Request: fold
Amino acid sequence: MWADALQQKLADGSTLLSVSIPEYKIASTQLNYIRKYVFIENGGKIISGNIVEFFAKPEALEREKDKLPAQFNQSKIENFTGTVLLYDLQYKYVNGRIYKDGKLVNGSAQITQGKKSLTDQKVSNNMSTEEPTIRYASNVTMMAETQCINWYLVTTTFDGNGGIISVEKEFLYMTCGDGGSGGGGGGQPGGDTNVTVDCMGVLNGLAYGSPCGCIGGTSGVAYCPRDPCARKNAINLRTAQPNIVANKATIISNSSTVEWGAEQNVNAWGAGSFGYNPVTPRTNTATNSFTSSFHWNNVDGYTTGIAHGHPGGTGPSPRDAFWGLGNLNNPALLAAGQSAVNYYKEEVEVTTYLPDGTGYLIEVEDWAALQAEYNIFLQDPDAYNSTYVSEAQNYLFANNSTNVGDAGVWALMSKLGSAIRIYKSEPGSNTFMPLEKIGFSVTDKPCVY
Reply:
């Protein structure tokens, strides 16, 4: 495995070591890929390690294969049109980026299961017409009960407001086995992945990445979830800002038949940033949608959330919960560096106001879990929304209630679990309290501070 190891000096003085990994055959004739371990060494210590897959046209990969590993995490990859998938060393998905003519495109990519048959016309026309590539799990005997799954490279592009422009599927291969679960990389054949370096740089260590950093192993941190009572104090400092209070009043008073909304653009990003640039609420005259913008610059400010009205009095929707994901690959945000991305993840929020003045605010707690749920949503948004509505109806029936706001919250908590945290403000109040779901009830979580 180490015979073709390549070392490259990076601009910051660190050294990148890339090592090829055995690759699985894919069925597409228009697409190929290379698969690498990528380690970053600095000062004699490995500071990071990932598995990276580059998907592109075969001739492009052959031409650029030696240059690509050193550029896997950059916003520009010269002459590259394709997709870069990033995993941790346990082959768990981290993110997927799309490039066109060397520039990062606002979008995301991941290898996922496909419910459609291989002859479904919605699948990319680049799909091979040859017999599908089939990979069997080890020690599995072919029987009538053998279960097979189709796997696709799914790329989703977004507009500047986070709206979906396109979703493309490229069939890669089929896995067959006895129903056992696939690997952390979404079911792909894992190849030779015996060498591991944890997030503390320890060979075969037990530390692992989490939404709040590297925990476990030698990190000294066993458990680090965000305290919702502490978070609500930070939230209430923000919601008390004059711009936010004024926009809330405008949104509520105008969202009687159509949605009004506004972005929340901080004037500086970093710890303790609470000042907001003025943003005038507006509408695109739609009953069920508000078209938002995303900025990350020192003129317009830095978008860390949106607030919008729900004329029908319904609670936050799945699309509200997924809104923050659409900005993670924004070129301006990525160009600002990982610390900017981390700040965005920590602070992003989506607020829904009802006609009676009730407010619901969503924060993301587990980005990986939310992304996984979003991938399910993308396979069939109508079906996903139908189950959300059914969950809300279950709440209404169980409580003999007409409170569709809390019903929507209960349904969203049922579907997304610990991936999100929802806070609520009562009519006439700018103070939010964290909510918790207990049985068929939604109640304030007790906070003593």
About this structure: Confidence is low (pLDDT under 50) at residues 115-146, 177-195. The CA atoms of residues 314 and 405 lie 5 Å apart.
